[in-house]
Design brief:
It is found in: Cytoplasm. The protein is built from seven helices and six strands, in the order E-H-E-H-H-H-E-H-E-H-E-E-H. It is an alpha/beta fold and 233 residues long. Strands 1, 2, 3, 4, 5 and 6 form a six-stranded parallel β-sheet that branches.
Length: 233
């Protein structure tokens, strides 16, 4: 799909990890399609995860009582956000598809990726109540009026059986709900079916190759996929 733009938000410390391989596969397959692919490698960028006053470069609205949401909303409107946030927001604005590639940490994403969400998808840019969920601000960014898509691709430490209804970790849909519905859908993304790689450290090399092949095959037809219904469990 020539002309499509893809942003991959990647959070893993080891390039030779399964997450690194999944990311590389996405870059290769999507680039071969003619897509423009940008990778935000958060660890390599040493992306700052903490939301602080330093994210605002201009004067504060209320320096006596700091409110991060209010201050960053006004800083976005006035062009006074720090450089790293502004650069990431520009990538999001231009992307047709945003892929989040990460290992599952404590039933969620790594802190550095959560920090990216906290600092980049701020009020006024990605949401502005009641402009949320199907009316989220990111829905309006593409001039082509196409949906802005998001896809979570992640690895787990536990097996698929562990993340089943009968498993010790419970049905995987329960941990997906806050990530997909409460974060992505809230901002106006349309959500594609997650790509879950269960327990890659405990499978054979042949199985890992099969996982990457399956991911590549899915990406070949990713633009034909329909968004999933993202509602509470």
């Amino acid at each position: 799909m020539a002309g499509k733009k893809v942003l991959i938000i990647y959070a893993h410390q080891e390039p030779r990890s399964m997450n690194g391989s999944l990311k590389n596969t996405a870059v290769e397959v999507l680039s071969e399609q003619g897509c423009s692919v940008t990778v935000s490698d958060l660890y390599a960028m040493q992306f700052k995860a903490t939301a602080t006053r330093s994210d605002i470069t201009g004067n504060l609205c209320n320096p006596k009582h700091f409110n991060y949401g209010v201050e960053t909303r006004e800083a976005f409107r006035s062009g006074n956000l720090c450089k790293d946030i502004a650069e990431e927001q520009k990538k999001v604005q231009e992307a047709n598809l945003v892929i989040f590639q990460f290992p599952l940490y404590w039933f969620s994403m790594p802190a550095i990726m959560k920090g990216w969400l906290d600092r980049v998808l701020i009020q006024g840019f990605a949401h502005n109540y009641p402009q949320c969920y199907d009316a989220g601000l990111l829905k309006e960014l593409l001039s082509t009026l196409q949906d802005k898509l998001a896809l979570l691709s992640f690895t787990t430490g536990g097996t698929e059986e562990m993340f089943s209804k009968e498993g010790d970790s419970g049905d995987v849909k329960y941990l997906l709900w806050p990530l997909q519905h409460g974060m992505m859908h809230y901002c106006g993304f349309k959500i594609l079916t997650p790509e879950i790689t269960f327990a890659p450290e405990y499978v054979t090399e042949n199985r890992r190759k099969e996982v990457l092949t399956s991911w590549a095959q899915r990406l070949q037809n990713i633009w034909n996929e329909k968004p999933i219904i993202c509602t509470p469990p």
